[in-house]
Amino acid sequence: MSAGSVRPPAVAEIFYPGDRARLLHLIDSLTPKPEPDPNEKEPAQAILTPHAGLMYSGRVAASVFSRVRIPPVAVILGFNHRGSGPTYSAWPGEAWETPLGRAAVHQPLARRLKVEFPELELEARAHEGEHSGELQLVFLQYFRPDVQIVPVSLNAWRDESGFESLKRFGAALARAVAAVGPDTFVVASSDMNHYESEETTQYKDDRAIQAMCSLDADALREVVVREQISMCGFAPAVAVISYARARGSRGGRLALHATSGDVSGDRERVVGYAGIVFQ
Fold first, then answer.
1. Side-chain half-sphere of 109: how many Cα atoms within 13 Å?
2. HSE, side-chain direction, 13 A CA sphere, residue 37
3. Which of 34, 98, 234, 272 has the most beta carbons within 10 angstroms of its beta carbon?
4. Are the C-beta atoms of residues 256 and 63 closer than 8 Å to each other?
5. What is the domain partition of the chain in residue ranges?
6. How far apart are CA 279 and CA 178, in angstroms?
7. What global pTM score does this model have?
8. Residue 21, Cβ neighbours under 10 Å: how many?
9. Domain 8-278 in CATH: superfamily?
């Protein structure tokens, strides 16, 4: 993979419309109205948003992206669903592309993050075909077309060593952002509990959301393991909690919770979606 490479869209026409006009129309239809005045949007250290197909989780994502001030640089923390490539991987090339255009990688921040967290590899395999980060980028581009990004794929897990490394990564990311410049925020992506009833998913998601809003990574791990919560973005969630705490966040606030049953009508096998703002 050359240093000048551009990642093309991998899930256009699968998770979202593949042409610009239809994608813009869909995101506009998902965005709460009226939108806040740009001068009244909330500052945020970080956010957590889902990454299912836009028809299912886009309303939750839009509820978060539309209310926060998006700075010029965004670090995108996605989950490596397929497990290929390194455990910690930043995109090595120059940009990512979607139907909404090309977003340049902020190279100084990517390089500084590698210095602060040497386990991070600049490698493409973990990002190829992966949807979690790409779903965040289309919202970033809609609300801030000139955004620059640092896409990071995480595949550390819930065992003790993986969990501790995720907390170290979040703290290292905070140091990197502080060193390169403060006008940056972090977008972490996770869906919540998978394929259980609406009642069970609401119960499980509520407990995970409480831990995340309290910036308590240890409590999140404990409840995810105890309740067997199948949130696929556990790694990005732990990393963003640790990042927000290191940056002095006061805590998280739930913007919206929903499930796939709100769209499909199936309340027996749902996926939960949460949008959280960390200030």
1. 28
2. 2
3. 272
4. yes
5. 8-278
6. 16
7. 0.96
8. 9
9. LigB-like (3.40.830.10)
